[in-house]
Amino acid sequence: MKILLFDIDGTLMLSGGAGRRAIDRAFLELHGVTDAFGAIVPDGNTDPAIFSEIFANHGIAAADDSPMFREVVRRYVLHLPAEIEDSAQAHLMPGVVPLLEHLAVDKSVALGLLTGNFEETARIKLDRFGLNRFFPFGAFGSDHGVREHLVPIAVQRAEVHLEEPIGLGPHVVVIGDTPKDIDCALVNRATAVGVASSRYSADELEAAGAHHVMPTLEDIPTFMNAITSGESSLQK
Question: What is the pLDDT of residue 35?
């Protein structure tokens, strides 16, 4: 059994800035901060890490488990549905739905999420395009603020979902579009599949150590080869 763990932003879809706008609204309402997100580069970071960086950038002391931190997250969750529904730039990445439909009927694989999003906001984003039906389990930024710790959590949830032992190893496949997605796979002895359809090039993902790199998720045979082959392959 292969456990396929998909990142969301830049891999499955883009929200067209909806997340950033919802965060900015939350910080403006609670702390009077405009453009709270600023120049932060979110690529591969977890939401807790991003929120902590925003608080630090604006000189606001707020521990991750503090009421202040939790309240700004609550406001973010509250604003995100409207922001993403109204986001004209939100879109699926190429090939996502055909690939997921193909995988959903393949009994040799199980689909899950591995994302830095809070679980609530991950589900809100995926709901915009009806993708939640493909992902019965996953690990999220709300589970841990350090991405590399999410792989074991996702595997544990896969074991509960499938009612069988899974464990870590190359049969666990992390699919993502940033070097941090690749890093978290490698640290956990998982197979890393890079998708160069967003900010990072195939060369950058290969340099990060990806076992396989694809330009998009459109080529289903190549993807299936990547998750079943023991050898690295690079399609440019």
Answer: 94
